[in-house]
Amino acid sequence: MIKALPELGSYSEQELEAAKQWPAVSRYLGLLERTPERAGLTPLQALKLSRHEAWLKSSLALFHNRATDEEICYGWSQAANHHIQLARTQSGLDQTDVAIFALGKLGAEELNLSSDVDLMLIRPDSGDAPLKEAREFVRILNAADEWGFCHRVDLALRPGGSASPMIPTISQFENHYGYHGEAWERLAFVRFRHICGGEKAEVANQAQQFARGDRKS
């Protein structure tokens, strides 16, 4: 059973000071101390502070050997799932039928502290692509300012790569991987995991069935 990571309050002042030799630890602790009540923060600022708190829990557990590598990577992956869901709501993407999937280290729930997040957005065949909401979703996670950033998002693993539509339809997804995708692209399905969205339009279920090899004749 994978154990939860220790809370920040479980570390002594001496332990926190020792970990500040890692510059990012020092910076994020400073941001948390700057806004202890978090009153008056915008949703984006609150999201970033939530991210920093989760990152600190992971990094302090690593620095002080309070958890296994598996527990740290799993805990950070679960935090990233949560941040992605919050960004989906803040961007308005939750009002669409777009499904969000993770690949790579996040898909395998093995995200490390410096990894970007490999995501794929898939939509139903009908209707227009909600590009405005999708771009805002990526911006919320990617944007860096005085509060830092949340997660670096990489959408390049989608069917056809960066030159293809940002949000492929389920048919485009199935056509690419069924007839044109390279072997290495299909192998990526080993780490293909649904995070949220697309349930109403059955996009999430269709994509997962296809990735498992349960394909239409």
**Which whole number gives the mean pLDDT?**
93
Global shape: globular
Beta strand %? 5-15%
Order of helices and strands: HHHHEHEHEHHEH
The major sheet is characterized as: 4 strands, mixed
Sheet with most strands: strand arrangement? 3-2-1-4
Give the termini distance in whole angstroms.
39 Å
**Number of alpha- plus pi-helical segments:** 9
The computed structural class is alpha+beta
Helical content stands at 40-55%
The overall strand count is 4
Radius of gyration: 19 Å
**Which residue ranges are poorly predicted, with pLDDT under 50 across at least 5 consecutive positions?**
none
Q: What distinguishing features does this structure have?
A:
alpha+beta
Walk me through what this model shows.
The protein is α+β, with helices and mostly antiparallel strands. The chain is 48% helix and 8% strand. It has nine helices and four strands. It has a four-stranded mixed β-sheet with strand order 3-2-1-4, sandwiched between helices. Helix 6 (131-142) links the parallel strand 2 and strand 3. Helix 3 runs antiparallel to helix 4 and helix 4 packs across helix 6 (131-142). The termini are far apart.
Condensed summary:
The protein has 217 residues and is α+β, with helices and mostly antiparallel strands.
SSE diagram, text form:
Layout: H1 13-19, H2 23-34, H3 43-63, H4 69-91, E1 99-103, H5 104-107, E2 117-122, H6 131-142, E3 153-154, H7 170-180, H8 183-187, E4 193-196, H9 203-212
Parallel strand pairs: 2-3
Antiparallel strand pairs: 1-2, 1-4
Helix pairs in contact: 2-3, 3-4, 4-6
